[in-house]
Amino acid sequence: MSIIKAANLGHKDAKYHVGRMLFRGIGVPTNVKSAINYLQSAISSGSVFAKYELSLLYFKKSNMNSKAKRLLKEAAEAGYVLAQEELAQRYADGNGFEKNLVKSYAWISVAAECKGFLAFKKSKFFNALTKEQQNDAEVLYREYHTNFACKYY
Questions:
Q1: Residues 6+ apart with CB under 8 A from 13
Q2: N or C: which end of the chain has fewer CB within 10 A?
Q3: pTM here?
Q4: Domain locations in the chain as residue ranges
């Protein structure tokens, strides 16, 4: 069975993959409108991965930032490590979110639990903080660790 047929039959993961392929032009011509439809359908079926992918698509569309932010946070809070890493970087850079180094450190710390190679980013982010921010970041990290531990990677 082809992935498109599986997606059209309602398979959540297939809908996500077809949406991703259409968004990025992987093996098919790029088609943003169709990508959005497949990704939204995958989200309706419970795909955390589709929330992350659609957030990236929406960030590219300047008038979709509020939806992009909501979807990225939802994917990160659901435990998707790529979303956690993306959110950490966006807080660090002030890209799409208000710059917040404390939140950036807390998110990269949660993501680093699943992907050990992110530890280098964790230390880089930590060293950019003041002592007071470091204390605040550790408290926030413990809260995020408890509530949003990585489940998908």
A1: 42, 47, 49
A2: N
A3: 0.91
A4: 1-78, 79-153
Q: Would you call 86 exposed, middle or buried from its count of C-beta atoms within 10 A (0-12, 13-18, 19+)?
A: buried
Contact 149, 113 (CB under 8 A): yes
CATH architecture assignment, domain 1-78: Alpha Horseshoe (1.25)
How much is the CA Rg of the chain, to the nearest whole Å? 17
Structure tokens at 146: 């408890």
Direct distance between the N- and C-terminal alpha carbons of the chain, in angstroms, rounded to an integer: 26
Our measurement of the distance from residue 98's CA atom to the centroid of its chain's CA atoms, rounded to an integer in Å, reads 16
User: For residues 2-36, b (16+ Cβ closer than 10 Å) or e, as one string?
Assistant: eebebbeeebbebbbbbbbbbbeeeeeeeeeebbb
Give the CA distances from residue 25 to residues 12, 29, 61, 83, 85, in Å, rounded to whole numbers and listed in that order: 20, 5, 17, 21, 23
And the tokens for 56? 């990236």
Q: Which tokens go with 15?
A: 């809908």
